[in-house]
Each structure stands twice: as structure tokens, then as C-alpha cells.
Amino acid sequence: MLTSHYVPTCYGVIQKSIVQQNKKVFNKITSTWVPKMKNLQETLKTVPFSLAANSDYDTRVSVLVESPLTATGLSLELVHSRLRFKDYFGHLLNMEKPWWLEEKEEMLKVGSTLTGFGELVLDSNHVLRLQPPKDGNTYMLILSDYWSYLKQQESSIMLYKFLTAVFVMTAGLSSLCFLIGSAMRPEVTGLIRMA
Prior knowledge:
The protein has one helix at about 145-185; strands spanning about 1-5, 10-25, 30-45, 50, 60-65, 75-85, 95-110, 115, 120, 130, 140. By secondary structure, it is an alpha+beta fold. The strands form three sheets. Strands 1, 2, 3, 6 and 7 form a five-stranded antiparallel beta sheet that branches. A hairpin with a 4-residue loop joins strand 2 (about 10-25) and strand 3. The chain is flat.
């Protein structure tokens, strides 16, 4: 189990720490100050963990998660964020404005609701493992339960259906207006008279 560097009572199984430098550099060509960001330090740690049921189901059954960092859809919870301002006197000499450091720590906390989509394998030691599919399908870990994920996907489907219906109605209406306008326009079939 991993312990947060900044929040002593926070425990997790995945920890991502970033120290990012933010400053403004003077661009001589455009005569403007351009923001510049640089990651000074980035660490990513993980420990082996299992998914277990948190309801009335059999709590003895657990699924070992393999390669959680390769999964898509996994967003970690921000547990610490701090800005440290720096002011150096030499910023005028090297054409840099005062900059600051941003410290961020994100974690997948112990006890979080996590749903996994991947290949479920029973190994020789009778341990269930969730791993990336060998056939190239998507391997996903999401921070919600299955029903919340399903509801989110259904709402995005409804949005696309609505946008498709609006587009079809707009295209049909514009085509109908074009046809009516071309039918009502008098056609020039005779010769042009010269005066």
C-alpha cells in the first residue's frame, strides 16, 4: 500500500506525483511573454491490488488487476495541489518573468469503486486475473460502478442521436427549400432578345 507524501492518512494503490515549473519567457520576435511549462519531476508508482465485491455477494472472491497503468479511462483522484511562488532577481537578465512550481499528487485510493473491462483469466493457482485482452480489445479501468458507466454511455448515445436527428432535419429542410425555390423560379427557355 502506498502512502501519500502530503496527506499522511491517505492510502492508495496507484500514486502519481508531478512537480511542474511554470514561467513566462520573452519572445523577441513577437515582443510578447510566452508561457512555458516543464515537468521537473514525475513519478508513478503502483502496487499489486485486487478488486473485491463491496456488497452482499461472496467477499472471498477477488480479481487481481494486472498492468493497471496500461488501461484506458483510469482517472486518479487529486489529493494534493500546491503552488510555490519563486521570485528571482535575475529574471530580467535572462528575459524570464518570475515563475512558480506546481506540486500535484493524484492517487487511486484504497476502497475506491473501480470497474474493469478486460480479459478475465483463471491461472494455475486458481487466482482470477484481469489483464489486457490478447486480441487487441480495449482494456479499461473506470472510477465508477458498472451501472453508472452504462448510464453515462447511454446519455452520450442519446446526445449523438439527437445531433443526428437535428442534422438530418436541417439537411432535409434545406433540400426541400432548394427544390421549392427551383420549382417556383421561372425558367428561361426562349432566346435572348436583343434590343
